[in-house]
């Protein structure tokens, strides 16, 4: 099978083209750097099937970051039959810079002029035939997004891949042309593959080439000693880059005919950016957008209409019977949309899902099990262990999807890239560039791809700091914790709104990340902040197909995880909560003597400064179990709550609470545990903060280990997560429970800052 | 203990062992659990452990 590689600048549409050609559903985002590793698929419309390899985006073949090395090594070492160079036609000159480098390799190259629809929409035109003549390789106009020109592209690439092609360079008129020629002859003599490409890179004194061809590089150094350019001196890399751009401007750029040659036309994206990336209003606008998302997803009072107009509840309207039950199915449906306030779309979908589907389904299944005649322990295992845990986790699926729909819209529209841009100014003060924000924002989805995405950061210390704080950006798996605890607080206290609590917790994560970075970059990970240059992609309307792919993948994975890892975990939790160390089976009312309870009670004092330790009394160990179970997968926290709360209620341990934990709702499980333990709001918020900032799930820990490289860096990272979560959660709890302690925290922080400043001054003196 | 209870125990044990075994096999293959979309067939994101 032939193998074609897709190469091009970041955000030029490679992955969109890859998905269109192979029918894949790889993640596509409207910002540079989404793809950090190669991935393969198969195109089947050519006479022979073709393997398509999607490479990370690169600006040149002189690699600076790990993902650029991946792209370069693939083209050079794996020897694809053809390289399809995707060029963003709306940025022709800059994209052709990479083209001139790819063309120096002895491989068939086909140029795909992508985003031609946008070029034509702007009223511009590109003479593809003329460009093909000047480049000497096939050029095909396409629109990967709309699927235009793809078959022609593949057919021409397929035909061209059978031909042998020798590398060609645009540097033949440059001041270094003779040197490149001499080096190429030397490399030819050594039977080096792709001699022209290596010769040019050697002349640029590319670090990888210098290492590979130590003997030949002497030729360059000798020449360098006798050479000096008026502008660039002996900086050969700059000289080569300048020569490429001059050639492109003179020979290739004229194929682009602009609608209005001499007039700069302000696009809609430019106009939007004047507001959205404003140096003062940019960050407040971002926070308002973020809050709007949380309001639309979690608020039980849409636009606060209920609070403003004092709308009547269903009970006030006489729609409930004497027992507080709905009068009929219509009222039950109405209760999913309104009860004293109109619910936000996320809450409406969630209530419909839970009341009509999950609740009914698990209620019916539970009834079947109870009537099956199985022994009491088996009924308990299925109903309290399996169903409660599963239902609690699945009950949050709609809200998770609604939240990720909004995040996907922000990403696909191009706004996420703007956030990196507007945050760069602030991040820079803390020792990070705006580039590191992109992996962090990916952390809202999942820490694992976010940690992998840190490969786009060239500075190792910046990368380590970013990997460490990524778990602070609450991932999808932590959402059930946030939603359940926030919901329980609102139900319990009868005050506040879940959207405010969840939004505040997200902000707490972001602020904690910034403070942690500030601390690391001034102590163990000191170093200069690397410059940040990022191309802002044009805004475009989010693609419905992309959004649905994102949501489908998220839902599929969430459900799969619920029926595997979470289900297995709830079974184990139930098992260890019903057996003593003497391996004696315990009834529900005896589970405080179980292995799980005994171990958790032993560990409970450790969590006392965090508000969910010894002060919670007899049933407080449930919080410890939940926090520990979260290390396997964060969804386990609420699954554990539900399983153990159901067992405690069945055993009568918390019967005085007057609550009935319903199978369809994790919020009720947390509420039952609130009543059972007497934990206060500060303890609950501290519990969320601890779970948000502590060691992430096993999978994320394994990824961090692989990405950090050294054992020392990994061990320090584990230590950092434990210490950070402990300090943050205890600060939240103590300040919330005993407001006067804020003075102690201020003094402690001030002392740390003074110590760091003095130490750094001392180090600077020694350095000077 | 009836047939249903025995089947329940076997089923639960199979699930727990299966999940643990699958995670060991995935790790040996250089993959790991991930919420990045789950499109593992086309994603090399998890195979970084091999490198």
Oligomeric organization of the protein chains: heterodimer
Structural class of chain B: mainly alpha
CATH homology superfamily of the domain at 2-160 in chain A: P-loop containing nucleotide triphosphate hydrolases
Query: Average pLDDT value of chain B?
Result: 69
In round numbers, the mean pLDDT of chain A is: 85
Number of helices of chain B: 1
Q: What's the overall geometry of chain B?
A: rod-shaped
Q: Find the count of extended strands of chain A (DSSP E, 2+ residues).
A: 8
> Which fold name fills CATH's third level, the topology of the domain at 2-160 in chain A?
Rossmann fold
Cα shape of chain A: globular
Percent of residues in helices of chain B comes to 40-55%
Gap from first CA to last CA of chain A: 61 Å
Radius of gyration of chain B: 16 Å
Task: Write up this protein.
The complex is a heterodimer of chains A (768) and B (51). Chain A is built from 33 helices and 8 strands. Chain A has 768 residues and is mainly α. Among the domains of chain A are: 2-160, Rossmann fold, CATH 3.40.50; 171-257, Helix Hairpins; 738-768. In chain A, the strands form 2 sheets. Chain A has a 6-stranded mixed β-sheet with strand order 2-3-1-4-5-7, with helices on both faces. In chain A, strands 6-8 form a two-stranded antiparallel ribbon. The longest helix of chain A is centred in the last third of the chain and has 33 residues, at 544-576. Mean pLDDT of chain A is 85; it is low at 656-664. Chain B has one domain (3-50). Chain B has 51 residues and is mostly helical. In chain B, 31% of the residues are buried. The model of chain B is unreliable at 35-51 (pLDDT under 50). The interface between A and B is large, with 48 and 31 residues.
């Amino acid at each position: 099978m032939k193998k074609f590689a897709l190469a091009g600048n970041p955000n030029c549409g490679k992955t969109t083209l890859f998905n269109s050609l192979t029918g894949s559903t790889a993640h596509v985002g409207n910002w540079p750097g989404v793809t950090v590793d190669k991935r393969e698929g198969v195109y089947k419309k050519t006479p022979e099937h073709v393997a398509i390899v999607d490479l990370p985006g690169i600006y040149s073949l002189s690699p600076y970051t790990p993902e650029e090395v991946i792209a370069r090594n693939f083209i050079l070492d794996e020897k694809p039959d053809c390289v399809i160079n995707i060029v963003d036609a709306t940025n022709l000159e800059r994209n052709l810079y990479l083209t001139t480098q790819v063309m120096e390799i002895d491989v068939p190259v086909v140029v795909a002029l992508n985003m031609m629809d946008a070029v034509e929409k702007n009223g511009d035109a590109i003479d593809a035939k003329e460009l093909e003549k000047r480049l000497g390789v096939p050029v095909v106009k396409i629109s990967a997004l709309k699927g235009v020109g793809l078959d022609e592209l593949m057919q021409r690439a397929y035909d061209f891949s059978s031909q042998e092609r020798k590398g060609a360079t645009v540097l033949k008129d440059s001041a270094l042309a003779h040197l490149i020629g001499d080096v190429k002859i030397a490399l030819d003599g050594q039977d080096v593959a792709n001699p022209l490409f290596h010769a040019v890179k050697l002349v640029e004194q590319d670090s990888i080439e210098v290492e590979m061809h130590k003997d030949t590089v002497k030729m360059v150094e000798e020449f360098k000693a006798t050479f000096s350019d008026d502008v660039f001196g002996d900086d050969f890399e700059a000289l080569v880059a300048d020569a490429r751009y001059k050639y492109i401007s003179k020979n290739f750029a004229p194929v682009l005919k602009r609608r209005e040659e001499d007039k700069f036309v302000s696009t809609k994206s430019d106009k939007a950016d004047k507001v959205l990336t404003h140096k003062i209003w940019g960050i407040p606008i971002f926070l308002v957008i973020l809050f709007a998302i949380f309001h639309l997803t979690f608020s039980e009072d849409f636009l606060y209409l209920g609070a403003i107009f004092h709308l009547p509840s269903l009970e006030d309207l006489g729609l409930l019977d004497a027992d507080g039950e709905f009068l009929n199915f219509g009222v039950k449906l109405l209760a999913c949309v309104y009860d004293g306030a109109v619910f936000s779309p996320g809450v409406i979908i969630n209530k419909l899902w839970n009341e009509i589907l999950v609740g009914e389904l698990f209620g019916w299944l539970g009834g079947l099990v109870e009537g099956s005649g199985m022994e009491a322990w088996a009924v308990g295992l299925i109903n309290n262990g399996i169903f409660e845990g599963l239902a609690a986790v699945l009950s949050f699926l709609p809200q998770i999807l609604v939240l990720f729909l909004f995040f996907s819209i922000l990403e696909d529209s191009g706004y996420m890239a703007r956030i990196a841009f507007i945050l760069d100014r602030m991040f820079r003060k803390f020792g990070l560039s705006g580039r590191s924000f992109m992996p962090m924002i990916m952390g809202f989805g999942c820490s694992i791809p976010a940690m992998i995405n840190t490969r786009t950061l060239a500075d190792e210390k910046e990368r380590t700091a970013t990997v460490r704080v990524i778990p602070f950006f609450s991932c999808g798996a932590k959402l059930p914790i946030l939603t359940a605890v926030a919901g329980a607080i609102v139900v319990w206290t009868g005050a506040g709104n879940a959207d405010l609590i969840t939004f505040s917790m997200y902000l707490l994560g972001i602020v904690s990340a910034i403070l942690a970075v500030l601390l690391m970059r001034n102590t163990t990970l000191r170093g200069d902040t690397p410059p940040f240059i990022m191309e802002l992609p044009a805004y475009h309307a989010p693609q419905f197909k992309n959004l649905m792919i994102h949501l489908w993948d998220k839902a599929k994975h969430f459900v799969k995880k619920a029926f595997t890892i979470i289900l297995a975990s709830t079974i184990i939790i139930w098992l260890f909560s019903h057996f003593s160390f003497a391996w004696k089976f315990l009834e529900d009312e005896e589970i405080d003597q179980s292995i799980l309870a005994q171990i958790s009670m032993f560990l409970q004092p450790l969590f006392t400064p965090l508000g969910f330790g010894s002060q919670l009394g007899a049933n407080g160990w449930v919080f410890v179990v939940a926090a520990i179970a979260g290390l396997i997968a964060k969804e386990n926290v609420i699954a554990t709550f539900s399983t153990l709360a159901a067992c405690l209620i069945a055993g009568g341990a918390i019967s005085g609470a007057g609550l009935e934990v319903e199978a369809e709702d994790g919020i009720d499980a947390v509420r039952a545990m609130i009543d059972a333990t007497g934990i206060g709001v500060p303890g609950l918020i501290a519990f969320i903060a601890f779970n948000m900032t502590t060691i992430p799930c096993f999978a994320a820990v394994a990824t961090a280990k692989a990405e950090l490289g050294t054992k020392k860096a990994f061990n320090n990272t584990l230590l950092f997560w434990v210490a950070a979560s402990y300090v943050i959660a205890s600060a939240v709890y103590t300040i919330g429970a005993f407001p006067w302690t804020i003075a102690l925290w201020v003094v402690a922080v001030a002392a740390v800052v003074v110590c760091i400043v003095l130490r750094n001054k001392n180090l600077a003196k020694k350095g000077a | 203990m009836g047939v249903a209870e025995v089947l329940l125990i076997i089923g639960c044990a199979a699930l727990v062992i299966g999940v643990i075994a699958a995670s060991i096999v995935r790790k040996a293959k250089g993959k790991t659990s991930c919420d990045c979309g789950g499109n593992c067939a086309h994603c090399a994101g998890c195979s970084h452990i091999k490198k």
